[in-house]
Design goal:
By secondary structure, the chain is an alpha+beta fold. It has one domain (38-141): Immunoglobulins (Immunoglobulin-like). The protein has helices at 2-16, 32-38, and strands at 43-45, 49-56, 60-69, 77-82, 87-90, 101-109, 115-125, 134-141. It has a four-stranded antiparallel beta sheet with strand order 1-3-6-5, with no helix packed on it. A four-stranded mixed beta sheet has the order 2-8-7-4.
């Protein structure tokens, strides 16, 4: 019994005593996500909805949603994801400078999809107010 109690006390001591330093000193470099959380800017959406009309099942639709950095600081897009795995967005890798226009490229694969489809693309950035959702919509018909 003493061995079990001693073992538990030893394990608890290692788990509870985190000797790593949590208040790290910055070395002057910051990640894109850290910069995005501190330096906000504004964004103007040029295209927020794209209606691709009717397509046959199995076709792919590609569209570039345009947006403008209407603020005074670089716009950093940290993430872009879609509501479904059939839709793949690509965000700009570099910061968008003030006054510049950039794109969120979206590819929708209609394989296995039928009828009306609406896909939502969510974009995370340092824009304030937040980047509004983008929508890709249309109808997928049976292959003739």
């Amino acid at each position: 019994m003493k061995k079990i109690v001693l073992f538990l006390i030893t394990v608890m001591a290692f788990v509870c005593c985190d000797v790593r330093r949590k208040d790290k000193v910055s070395d002057g470099t910051a990640t894109m996500a850290e910069m995005a959380s501190t330096d906000t800017t504004s964004v103007q959406i040029i295209d927020s909805v794209y209606d691709f009309g009717k397509i046959a099942e199995g076709e792919k639709v590609t569209y570039n949603f345009r947006f403008l950095n209407s603020g005074k600081k670089p716009l950093i897009v940290t993430d872009a994801h879609a509501s479904c795995g059939c839709t793949v967005p690509e965000k700009p890798e570099k910061p968008v400078m003030p006054g510049e226009t950039a794109f969120i490229k979206v590819v929708f694969n209609s394989k296995g999809k039928m009828g009306p489809n609406v896909k939502t693309i969510t974009v995370n950035s340092n824009a304030n107010p937040a980047f509004p959702p983008l929508y890709l919509k249309g109808e997928v018909t049976a292959v003739k």
